[in-house]
Amino acid sequence: MKVKDLMTQDPVVLGPEATLEEAARRILETRYGGFPVVDGEGRLLGVVQVEELLPHPENVPFSDVEALQLFGEWVDEDALAEIYRRYQRTPVKAVMRTEIPKVHPEDPLGKALKVVLTTDLRHLPVVDEEGKVVGILTRSDFLKLILGRG
């Protein structure tokens, strides 16, 4: 099998200037865990996943304290209003992953499976020769294939 046989064609994408609020709402509406981020021509710039939208616990430098960081800044875990304001003004390009593997429609499906199994990327972009996003593969796609529902 080839990537094109399992991928979802014409996936939902975001532009780099879309806000984190827009990305979060789209994730909740579609129930997808992330999206490719593309330029005006549809070329892949990166991927934003739900993990990039959530605060991360980090050790405060020079102490034993663990606090939350959001988009590189410390936040009070009770400050939801401030977090929401940051979502409204921060573009996805500020938090998207840019160093991401990608596959092509004609690649063997095994190549894509290896990428999914050896990285924490849950949404593997499929690009054509020009770097334009033509599809997406998810971990769930492989589960469906294994269960005979691909």
How would you describe the overall organization of this protein?
- The chain is built from five helices and eight strands.
- With 150 residues, the protein is of the alpha+beta class.
- It has one domain: CBS-domain, CATH 3.10.580.
- A three-stranded antiparallel β-sheet has the order 1-8-7.
- Helix 1 (20-30) packs across helix 3 (80-89).
- It is globular and about 50 Å long.
- 23% of the residues are buried.
- The mean pLDDT is 84.
- It comes from Thermus thermophilus (strain ATCC 27634 / DSM 579 / HB8).
- Residues 7-65, 96-150 form the CBS domain.
- This is CBS domain-containing protein.
Which terms would index this structure?
single chain; 150 residues; alpha+beta; CBS-domain; 3-stranded antiparallel beta sheet; 24% strand; globular; CBS_dom
The sequence of SSEs as H and E is EHEEHEEEHHEEH
Any idea of the CATH topology? CBS-domain
Uncertain stretches of 5 or more adjacent residues: none
Major sheet strand order: 1-8-7
Count of folded domains? 1
Main beta sheet: strand number and arrangement?
Answer: 3 strands, antiparallel
Summarize this, please?
Helices cover 29% and strands 24% of the residues. It contains five helices and eight strands.
